[in-house]
Design a protein that fits this description.
It is a multi-pass membrane protein. Keywords: Cell inner membrane, Cell membrane, Electron transport, Heme, Iron, Membrane, Metal-binding, Transmembrane, Transmembrane helix, Transport, Tricarboxylic acid cycle. Pathway: Carbohydrate metabolism; tricarboxylic acid cycle. Membrane-anchoring subunit of succinate dehydrogenase (SDH). This protein has 120 residues and is an all-alpha fold. It has one domain: 3 helical TM bundles of succinate and fumarate reductases. Helix 1 packs across helix 3 and helix 3 runs antiparallel to helix 4. The radius of gyration is 20 Å and the shape is elongated.
């Protein structure tokens, strides 16, 4: 029996261009959000305090952008941490536990951040 080409073992999934693009797109969104927030905070003539922060985040468009930022931040973190676990943790069981822990942690952080945002 003759085989052609090299035998390739694929470990994991979702490698490549899609994850690279997700990392760049979410990083861009976070950078733009940071600039928009800094412009609002550093606007001349407004004292920095709770009233300023509550005023910024009371606007519906800002809540929407912040929600998008929270989701983007979690997705960005998931792709990065997942790749670290897949690259450096070789035992499959330990890697699975770390993946599940990471997902639960990021979901909890996102839920907490959204809860804080909606209370303003």
């Amino acid at each position: 029996m003759t085989t052609y080409g090299s035998k390739r073992i694929v470990v994991g999934a979702h490698y490549g261009l899609r994850d690279w693009m997700v990392q760049r797109a979410t990083a861009l969104l976070m950078a733009l959000f940071t600039i928009a927030l800094l412009v609002q905070v550093l606007w001349p003539g407004r004292p920095l305090g709770y009233d300023l922060w509550a005023g910024i985040f009371s606007q519906q468009w800002m809540k929407f952008l912040t929600f998008a930022l929270i989701i983007s931040l979690c997705w960005h973190a998931w792709v990065g941490v997942r790749d670290i676990w897949m690259d450096y943790v070789k035992p499959v069981g330990v890697r699975l536990v770390l993946h599940v822990f990471t997902l639960v942690w990021l979901t909890g952080c996102a839920g907490w951040a959204i809860q804080v945002l909606w209370r303003l």
